[in-house]
Amino acid sequence: MSAADLLQAGGVVAFPTETVYGLGADAENDEAVRRIFSIKGRPVDHPLIVHLAEMSLINRWARAVPDSALRLAECFWPGPLTIVLQRSSRVSDLVTGGLDTVGIRVPAHPVAQALLREFGGGIAAPSANRFGRISPTRAEHVQEELGAAPDLILDGGNCQVGIESTIISLAAERPILLRPGGISIAELEEVLGDEIILLRQADPAQRSPGSHASHYAPQTPAFVVSMDELPTIFRCQVKAGYNVAILCFTETASEACSSLGCVLMPKDPDNYARVIYTILRLLDAADYDVILIEALPETEPWRAVRDRIQRAAQLHDKKRTSKGENYEKTTGRNFNGK
Ligand code: TXA
Ligand code: MG
Question: What's the whole-model pTM score?
Answer without folding.
Answer: 0.92
